[in-house]
Amino acid sequence: MADRGARAPSLPDDWPAHPDHPILALNHMGTFDWDLDAGLFHMDAQAHEVFDLTPEEYDGRPETLAARVPPAESSRLDAVVSRAIKDGSENYGTYFRIRRRDGTARWTHTQGYIRRDETGRPRRVVGIVRDATQELEDSEVRNLRDAQGQALRRQTGVVQAVTAALAHASSVQEVIDVLKDTHGIPNLGATSLVMGLVEAGRIRLVAEGPAGSFVPGTRITRIEEPYPMGEVVRTLSPRFIESPEEFADGYPILWPHITDLHITSAAYLPLIAQARPIGAMGLLYNDRLGFSSEERAVLVALGSSIAQSLQRAMLFEQEKDLAQGLQQAMLPRTIPSVRGADVAVRYRSASAGGSLGRDIGGDWYDLIPLPGGRVGAVIGDVQGHDTHAAAVMGQLRIVLRAYAAEGHAPATVMARASVFLDELDTDRFATCLYAEADLATGVVQVVRAGHIDPLVRAADGGCRRVPVEGGLPLGLSAEFQSLEYPVSTVELDPGETLLLCTDGLVEQPGKDLGDGIQVLIEQVTEGPEDVRALADVLIEIAEVRGGDDDVALLLLRRRGSDTAQAVGRLQQHVASGDPEALALARHMVRAAVRAWGAGDRADEIELVADELITNALMHTEGSAIVTLRVLSGSDRRLRVEVEDSSSALPRRREAGEDGVSGRGLLLVDEIADVWGVEARGGGKAVWCEFRMPEKDDGSAP
């Protein structure tokens, strides 16, 4: 017996009614007074005896009677009371069983009188309970009772089995499959099942059976149309049709279409969740007439359970669609093709055991084409698994991409992204790893903000972890007064693959993060050579393992040794007052000279390039663009260009004995094979060229 009201501050003045009535006590009848508002259920001494309870064992609350009333009996009794209250009845009566403290079952009969206020709202139920075991010992009644009890137990068992199975359904189709399963609705004896969901004033049929029982024109119907499912949705009350004649009279439009099913009775149930109809279900029978009160109560309870499961499944599907749509909108729609590299990206959403909203997170990847044949690879993870995390991720991905595309050095890109996240006024932080790869030289500049280290797979299949010095996660730098993100350099040889991932790919419950990374290294080593096939294998492993964290994965494989020759041009933006960018430009020159086969002149080329860059930064007010390229012709040459926005031409001048400047162009003129100046719009480019040796076989390097 359920508690049907919240505790009120006070009870009626005449409560409880007729306590310990002597006449009733002489007839072994106990009395009760149930205050629906207060949720209190008073029983007199004889009622305590009927339920085999002592006053000390009973606290006045109806749910305490569960110690004596089995759950199935309690549900049936509750349905009887609920129907009487809803129908406006003044009283009700029914038999039910209790289990005494010694384990024996006893039949009990109860009668209740419903008291309502002037508005018709039920306030109290007063009545009697008595032991009816002896009364039902009569043979005919006993046989009928046994038959009804057996059928009721079978139906109750089906309801319990269906309810248990529905607890695991996470979609509308899974709910339907449970109901159609051989252990589901068919065990109730139904010949056919129909189910519809309410959508915008209409009922859309989502299930019908058996095959061939579909009625034309009923796929979508208006609620006001004269169909039984529309009726139960309008009235919020079940409709039990107990004969073919009643069906034909009540629904003349529908009946001619189902006569071949030989339907003899039907039960249509409204599916109500949170006080609103979400659909309706019909069970049609061809071997019975009518429904007992117990059977009706069981079917009503079944409808309530199905409604709750349907609502949960519908909410889950809506959340899943929202999560997937938002996640896909925040991730890059396409990944650009990169000359000189093979790229594969993958994303797997979290699976948190059906928890709504937990299959979306803040993991992301990105690939950013940069000037000079370079490419930026990003992997990141915003704290949290909800729509807010995804929204923050989308904003962070866009600004990080913008900072990189503007030509900022990797450390500057990361520092600015951290400041942005801090100023976004959110409570989230993010881990991130940004790798800027020069595919011509194989030089990769890596900056890490609290993220896990990258992996590199060698051309022969071996895999290693690359330790990268890192800074604080994004969004925490301002709080800890730290915006320093050290830059590490990784050499990516032809055929090698850079692997970036979020921790969802390596974290395993109960295991150390290092152990998870080691397992990933083994999986990469054993995986296929093709980056797309390898990405599929790794994400499939993550799918099988499951987990409550999403996974982002990016693989970038540098192609064969002809990459440098195919690209043959590199470019680096050097901002004024940015010593880190200057250092990266020097590193680019050094790596390019080695990759393009001019290693014997590496020191000379690096020295001249450094002089040209320094002059541009010192004698102009803007930034400089450094370009290296290979010129083909009768002889191969490496050309260095430094472009700035000043139209003032450089001039050679003699430095004094104590002078610290003035020797730059003299140095360029002495070392370079040839040099010059070209006008470039509002600025200029100072260039120089160096002859490159040929390979031993006479071919160009």
Features of the shown structure:
alpha+beta; 6-stranded mixed sheet; 701 residues; 6-stranded antiparallel sheet; single chain; disordered C terminus
How is this structure best summarized?
By secondary structure, this protein is of the alpha+beta class. The chain contains 17 helices and 27 strands.
Please tell me about this protein's structure.
The chain is an alpha+beta fold and 701 residues long. It has 17 helices and 27 strands. 33% of the residues lie in helices and 27% in strands. Residues 5-9, 352-357, 562-567 and 696-701 have low confidence and may be disordered.
Please tally the helical runs, counting DSSP H or I stretches of 4 or more residues: 17
Main structural class? alpha+beta
Low-confidence stretches: 5-9, 352-357, 562-567, 696-701
How many E strands? Answer: 27
* Largest sheet report: 6 strands, antiparallel
Mean pLDDT: 80
Strand content: 25-35%
Envelope shape: elongated
Q: In oligomeric terms, what are we looking at?
A: single chain
* Computed Rg: 40 Å
The largest beta-sheet arranges its strands as 8-7-6-11-10-9
Helix fraction, binned, reads: 25-40%
Distance between the termini: 90 Å
